[in-house]
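Q: What would this chain look like folded?
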Amino acid sequence: MKTQHIVLSFLFIVFSAFTVSAQKKDPTQKKETLKVWGECGMCKKTIEKAAKDSGATTANWDTESKKLTITYSTAKTSNEKIQQAIAAAGYDTRDLTADNEAYDKLHECCKYDRKGAAASAEKKDPAQHH
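A: My prediction, written as structure tokens:
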């Protein structure tokens, strides 16, 4: 009985050591935070889904700060690919602007103040500068 207890304890220790070593941080894992424009809970679902569908392991968008925290494997995707997917879903990101067609497809409650709205309005009407 005592021998069985010692053997089981030893096996538990060995198993625990393997589990801990398997949980060490993957060197290809990267965690980043970036700005994504949006408005509501529906935006949150769409933004997070687009990020995950493009390879993010985790995605959490905060409706107040407009910050998206993502974790992804650099071996499987990139920050740029994730931002492209979010922009394709209709949301402006830190580095990309969604095209108007994708933005126009958003639900009314999801329409946000576009990050480039002022700049594009000036480009369309240069007479405003005179």
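The CA atoms of residues 88 and 98 lie 6 Å apart.
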